[in-house]
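Hi V.,

You were right to ask for the full record rather than a summary. Here it is.
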Amino acid sequence: MSEASGSPASIRSVSRAPAHPLAGLAIGFIGVVIFGATLPATHIALEGFSPAFITFGRAAIAALVAGATLLIMRKRFPRQHALSLFAAGVLLIYGFPGFSSVAMQTVPASHGGVVLGVLPLMTATFAALFGGERPGLAFWGWSIAGAALVMIFSLSGADIEPGIGDLWLACAALSASCGYVISGKLARTRPGWEVISWALVITAPLSLAGTAFAWESGISTPDAGALAALLYLSLGSMFAGFIFWNWGMAIGGIARVGQVQLLQSFVTLGLSALILGETVTPVMLGFAIAVGVVVWCGRKAKVG
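Predicted structure:
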């Protein structure tokens, strides 16, 4: 089978060695900052839109912008990667947000921190299983340490009882980590912006149908703040964030750059303080610094 066929083997044929690991971490962190504003923006958008409308509406808006960009750039649809693009789109555009929303209806919000805590570790696992990467023992050690720090911080002082919501959270983490690895592999063959653009376009029929279905009951006199928040979720969280994230994984390695997402919980806390006036405590800052040290040390660990 030729490389033009788009088989997993053809994608893996691209050099697996990260070309610029430090640059990949920096670019990936830009994506994490953009993702980190998602929860504050969602909080504001909910003042004028329903959760269902936000989920599908932001994807539909992003798909329109992505499609226009592809037309302007005169990009041809990579039919050999159609299945991978569709899978990445379903997992990242609907899977993670959908499962997380269902989980938040039955479990405390602190569980969300657990998802963010295990995501980098799960991403590294899937990168090893089908992403063509082989992290060394030191890398796994730093990865587990970072996940433990984030989970301890998220669960500290919380009255946690296992429930069905934990199953939905596990599905959310599986969706995101698998989607990251698929899109990261595709970003080795074409620019990161093109990967997320085609993923949005190929899933656009689902986004448009969902938006139409939620239109009548999903809009309740949104003000300028809610409209701006929805626009950010569309062009930032759903589009620009993935451009930097995919680009960072492509040049820095999927597993290694995935560890940067350990910082997302703390980015969200900081942005919530700036945007929503929430409080940042010294304990939060201490955990953030500790996680940052883990990510910095992990960048030097061997990933084959």
